[in-house]
Specification:
CATH superfamily of the largest domain: Spore Coat Polysaccharide Biosynthesis Protein SpsA, Chain A
Bound molecules: guanosine-5'-diphosphate-alpha-D-mannose
Number of domains: 2
Number of strands: 16
Protein name: Mannose-1-phosphate guanyltransferase
Order of helices and strands: HEHEHEHEEHEEEHEHHHHEEHHEEEEEH
Number of helices: 13
GO molecular function, one term: mannose-1-phosphate guanylyltransferase (GTP) activity
Low-confidence stretches: 293-302
Structural class: alpha/beta
Mean pLDDT: 92
Strand content: 15-25%
Keywords: Transferase
Pfam family, one: ManC_GMP_beta-helix
Distance between the termini: 47 Å
Length: 370
């Protein structure tokens, strides 16, 4: 076992709202903890994937109090001390700072993989090897390593990274993925900008996965997000003391929302991008769920929920509460998600628009539907 592996920790970032999976995903039961596809949640699938390279005792999850309850329900064997509960959602940068505050106390030599919960991965073994490769680079060269994915179409829901030269940094454990310097990062683009990115050939999708040593993460925070860095130290001092919960609540009451993309990656002087070749997509909305493994025919026909009757209808994705009968007549390519108290109907390909619907529902004050 080499140095990086012994100190390798995973932090599953699972405190997002997952509004793209409304109406199944709700404040009290966020989508990442629901069996949105088969009978397993994204959280459980992610956990199993990470366990291929990091032992469970070094896997942490940062989530809401509702998320924490669901973790203990779904994974009773998951150590409760590894569940870090955020009082509010403040984005991925505070989430990373909170995790750093705790891990700093446990292991000052920690190498931290910051991992979103809502990813679909085709080759779990290569994913694990890529994290180990990234960890080796992070240790050997004191870099913030981001994982980029070679884009095959102009997706507008992902951030992008523009790469420069191949970084030419050696390490003991390699994958076939190339390592590049990061030139610029771009937030989610509009369609014509995404087209330009794809044509240029030097833009990669930003997977939102980051790997860094504790030292690098702290120095990146110190130089790019100095207030958050001070808050991280303050929380860290309180870890394992009786007043820890109060300190964390205090800090979160004044923290500004910030993302790792904007807060750290965009301002980093040490960032490199390792190409991830493991087959990846984000699971933001129902269309993403329908396209994940097994293929759509499998999802749409083979596992059609009981109670769904289709006449002259094809390629519809339907989820209904147990015991409810739904009939579809003469329709194709629909998404119908029924939770009893709320109903989504949209055309396949349009489900990303559900976030706009959720915004309207929120503005209209219909909290019971959120
Ligand atoms: N604990 C915690 N987790 C959070 C929070 N906010 C988001 N997360 C988690 O962080 C991950 C990503 O958050 P999103 O807010 O869903 O980001 P995104 O819109 O998907 O964009 C990010 O990911 C894309 C790829 O999936 C990237 O392309 C994009 O650049 C960015 O990094 C998800 O697992 C989400 O649950 C928070 O406040 N707290």
């Amino acid at each position: 076992m080499n140095g990086a592996e012994e100190h390798l920790y995973a932090v599953i970032m699972a405190g997002g709202a997952a509004t793209g999976l409304w109406p199944l995903s709700r404040r009290k039961s966020p989508g990442q903890f629901l069996p949105v596809r088969d009978d397993r949640s994204m959280f459980s699938v992610t956990l199993e994937r990470i366990e291929q390279c990091i032992p469970k005792e070094r896997i942490f999850v940062v989530t809401s109090s509702e998320g924490a309850e669901l973790v203990s329900f779904l994974e009773p064997g998951f150590h409760s001390g590894n569940v870090l509960v955020e009082p509010q959602s403040r984005g991925t940068a505070p989430c990373a700072a909170f995790a750093a505050a705790v891990l700093r106390k446990r292991d000052p030599h920690a190498v931290i993989c910051l991992l979103p919960v809502d990813h679909h991965v085709e080759d779990d073994a290569l994913y694990a090897r890529t994290l180990l490769h990234a960890a080796d680079i992070a240790v050997a060269h004191a870099c913030l390593v981001s994982i980029g994915i070679c884009p095959d179409y102009p997706e507008t829901r992902y951030g992008y990274m523009q790469v420069g030269q191949e970084a030419g940094l050696s390490c003991s454990r390699q994958t076939e993925g190339k390592l590049y310097t990061v030139k610029t990062i771009a937030g989610k683009p509009d369609r014509s900008t995404a087209d330009t990115f794809i044509q240029s050939g030097d833009f990669f999708w930003n997977s939102g996965i980051f790997v860094a040593t504790m030292d690098t993460l702290c120095s990146e925070l110190r130089s790019s997000e100095s207030e958050l860095y001070r808050d991280m130290l303050y929380m860290s001092d309180a870890v394992d003391t009786p007043g820890a919960r109060n300190v964390i609540e205090d800090v979160y009451s004044w923290l500004h929302p910030a993302s790792l993309d904007e807060g750290l990656l965009a301002r980093s002087t040490s960032a490199v991008m390792l190409e991830g070749l493991f087959g990846w997509r984000d699971l933001c909305c129902w269309d993403d769920i329908a396209l994940t493994d097994g293929g759509e025919d499998d999802w749409l026909s083979g596992r059609k929920p009981q109670g769904v009757v289709e006449i002259d209808s094809r390629r519809n994705l339907v989820k209904t509460p147990p015991g409810k009968t739904v009939s579809l007549v003469g329709v194709t390519d629909l998404i119908v998600i029924d939770t009893g108290d709320a109903l989504l109907v949209c055309r396949r390909g349009d489900s990303a628009g559900v976030c706009a619907a959720v915004d309207v529902i929120r503005r209209e004050g219909r909290e019971e539907s959120l």
